[in-house]
Amino acid sequence: MRNSNLLYAALLLAVFCVPFAYSSECPDFTLEDMEGELFTLSDYFGEGPLLISFWATWCQPCKKELPHLQAMLDKYRDDGFKLITIAEDSPKSQAKIAPYVASKKFSFTVLLDPDNEILHLLQGNTLPFQVLLDSDGNIVETHQGYSPGDEVILVKKIEKLISGESIDE
Q1: Which of these, 128, 150, 163, 162, lies nearest to 52 by C-alpha position?
Q2: Mean pLDDT score, 123-151
Q3: Average pLDDT in the 53-61 region?
Q4: Is residue 5 part of a domain?
Q5: 90-135, pLDDT tens digit by residue?
Q6: What dihedral angle (degrees, nearest 10) is formed by the CA atoms of 125, 129, 134, 135?
Q7: With contact defined as beta carbons under 8 Å apart, do 124 and 142 qualify?
Q8: Are the CB atoms for 134 and 161 separated by under 8 Å?
Q9: Domain span at residue 123?
Q10: How many Å apart are CA 148 and CA 67, to the nearest integer?
Q11: CA dist list (Å): 6 to 10, 17, 102
């Protein structure tokens, strides 16, 4: 009896704690950008891969990663690649977001998620956190954290998605 309870508990954990499987549809959401305009994720599906990157002004690895993400956007924008960043700063520190973005001359979309609702919806728990979607809005990969060189691997995956290949190939 005790072993069957342990097996049952293990199965429940496996079912409810597994992150999104590759090629699962990304849940749609709507957030405000820095100017207070509403942004709906599904409006950006259809043309090419989409990267959602969660960050915060207090996150040092995020600050190291963001220039690489801007370079990717600059290089692949004409191929349909889109980049959406979601700032996880609390309401207290949100005033720092716009000056930081302007000082770095970032041109990507910045949305606000002060209560971490979308981060948790997509099962992120460490910043930076990335969700890579194909052009149909399916999650093909998630990644937590940043180490130098991660951007090289990400570029290869974006290039594969742009060319219509699976990132598993």
Answers
A1: 128
A2: 96
A3: 98
A4: no
A5: 999 999 999 999 999 999 999 999 999 999 999 999 999 999 999 9
A6: 110
A7: yes
A8: yes
A9: 22-162
A10: 12
A11: 6, 16, 53
In the block, tokens 């570029």 appear at 155
Domain of 100, CATH number, reads 3.40.30.10
Please indicate, yes or no, if residue 2 is contained in any of the structural domains: no
Instruction: Return the SS3 of 142.
Output: strand
Query: For position 27, what pLDDT does the model report?
Result: 96
Cα–Cα nearest to 143, from 151, 133, 131: 131
Distance CA 26, CA 163 (A): 21
For the chain, how many structural domains are there in total? 1
DSSP assignment of 48-62: S-EEEEEE-TT-HHH
Q: Is 102 exposed, middle or buried (0-12, 13-18, 19+ CB in 10 A)?
A: exposed
Predicted structure pTM score: 0.84
